[in-house]
Amino acid sequence: MNIELLQVSAFTKTAGLGNAAGICEFEIWPDDDTLSRLARAVSLPVTACIVRRADQFELRWFSRSGTPVRSMCGHGTLAAAFAVSLSDPGLAGFTFQTPGGPVPVRKRGDVFYLELPRWDAVPLVPWPDLTSALKLTPVELLDAGRDVIAVYGSEEEVRSLEPDMAQLLALGHRGFIATARGHQHDCVSRFFCPSFGLGVDEDPATGSAHCAIAPLWAQRLGKSVLRAYQASGAGGELMCEVRDHSVVIGASAALQARRLVSVP
């Protein structure tokens, strides 16, 4: 079975940078086994699958390992919004129904605004095993639910991190955010996720991580709109507006390729 795929670079205007996702659109949902085999055949960090229902879109994400993503996937959602815009350029607003809840989308120019859930973090007691894995002691640790946040004193410290990924993997199915105030951006971050089945230990640009990062720095900087940068090798830029119950993330995407994928 051959399935048409769009390969999209999310959180960038330059194809090949940011975070890659595969996008496939169906008239009706295939069974989960087919979608899992599709994701493994696509072999990108995330494959986003879309089914259109009237003025809304159902959206599901699958990791490179074929496992469904059930919380939230920002870069897969941004890439899916870009794909919808390619097929329907006049559509300025719509909603994705996702496993993590509804995600309203607005488009202005080449920027997509995704309204994602807000995840507020609470203090976490010292975690020596995490500090050992990160190889650099953070100023503080916070628990944001799915993810753990390690706050550092400078952007340079965040950029310099070389974690022991085997040690992080042993700490369980969590994402690990390292963040600090930025020089040219309000905040910088990196996202380590060896247990997520993405095929990479560090995610290049992570919209869902900013569900927690943005409220943290909004509170500390006393502002509701932030410029954020994810300081991975590929890098990713995001505009974040923190609201009472949501975080609106504004970002661009670029088409990297169109291809047929053979699903065994």
**Low-confidence parts:** none
- Kindly provide the name of the CATH class of the largest domain: Alpha Beta
Number of strands: 18
- What is the makeup of the main sheet? 18 strands, mixed
DSSP helical segment count:
6
How helical, in percent, are the residues?
Answer: 10-25%
Tell the overall outline.
globular
Beta-strand fraction estimate = 35-45%
| Full CATH superfamily name of the largest domain | Diaminopimelate Epimerase, Chain A, domain 1
Rg over CA atoms: 18 Å
| CATH fold description of the largest domain | Diaminopimelate Epimerase, Chain A, domain 1
SSE blueprint:
Blueprint: E1 2-10, E2 19-26, H1 32-42, E3 46-53, E4 56-63, E5 68-69, H2 74-87, E6 93-98, E7 101-108, E8 111-117, E9 122-123, H3 128-134, E10 140-143, E11 147-151, H4 155-160, H5 165-170, E12 175-181, E13 187-192, E14 202-203, H6 210-221, E15 225-230, E16 236-242, E17 246-251, E18 253-262
